[in-house]
Amino acid sequence: MASLLFFTGTMDSGKSTLALQTNHNHAARGRVGRIFTSQDRAGDGRLSSRLGLSTEAIEVDPTFDFWEYVVSSLTAGGRIDYVIADEAQFYTTAQVEALARIADELQIDVFAFGILTDFRTRLFEGSARLVELADRIQPLQVEALCWCGKRATHNARTENGVMVTEGDQIVVGDVDEPGFPTPNIGYEVLCRQHHRRRMTTARARAVTTLNDPLPFGS
Ligand SMILES: Nc1ncnc2c1ncn2[C@@H]1O[C@H](COP(=O)(O)OP(=O)(O)O)[C@@H](O)[C@H]1O
Ligand SMILES: Cc1cn([C@H]2C[C@H](O)[C@@H](COP(=O)(O)O)O2)c(=O)[nH]c1=O
């Protein structure tokens, strides 16, 4: 029986790396797959990991029809044993439903990867449907950490270095490189407590500096 698996974690928890490794392991055993992604930082039609690996991928926009794509590939004589679906949080409900149908009716394994919640701690549309439909939800094994050392469970967005809780749900960006590719926008992963308190690394540092006692003799 083919399955629909959802691998999830915060930003920077290794999802794209795992997507590339999953593809590698299956391809190495002669299986044939298709790789999909949506709005990867590396640009249209790329799936990239912060470890430096990247590969060509089929770009998914809201009009993309997974069912039609897979059925026409098979009808044209192509072979598809598995599907890799990265940045799945950006997929629509209908697209995730099509992935489930591909697993059930065509017996093609689907490996989906994505973050669960946005910078306001709300579920993304694609992730919500994956939680509802996946055979298994697998949290990433390597823990991303908050600046305090606890497991990071939430994604924070910064605008010019300051954490924000209002704005468009989708804004492509990075945790390592604020301002890329969207000017002024960055992300940081935090534990829930520090997300609630809007306590980013920069703010924690500022507060600590403010509370430092004056040195003796000054
Ligand atoms: N220089 C490095 N050395 C070792 N591991 C790294 C390095 N840079 C990034 N990583 C690992 O890569 C992970 C991010 O991988 P990536 O697949 O891009 O994450 P995601 O897709 O979840 O955003 C980090 O959590 C870290 O474990
Ligand atoms: C929290 C959050 C993230 N995004 C964007 C930022 C990145 O481009 C991707 C996540 O990619 P990653 O490989 O998991 O780092 O999602 C967004 O658009 N809105 C958000 O709220």
TrEMBL record:
Keywords on record: ATP-binding, DNA synthesis, Kinase, Nucleotide-binding, Transferase
Gene Ontology terms, MF aspect: ATP binding; thymidine kinase activity
The EC number(s) this enzyme carries: 2.7.1.21
Catalysis: reaction(s): thymidine + ATP = dTMP + ADP + H(+)
GO biological process, one term: DNA biosynthetic process
Gene Ontology cellular-component terms listed: cytosol
Chain sites annotated for binding substrate: 170-173, 187
Active site: 87
SUPFAM superfamilies: Glucocorticoid receptor-like (DNA-binding domain), P-loop containing nucleoside triphosphate hydrolases
NCBIfam families documented for this protein: PRK04296.1-2
Protein family (similarity comment): Belongs to the thymidine kinase family.
Protein name as it appears in the record: Thymidine kinase
Source organism of this protein record: Mumia zhuanghuii
Upper taxonomic lineage: Bacteria, Bacillati, Actinomycetota, Actinomycetes, Propionibacteriales
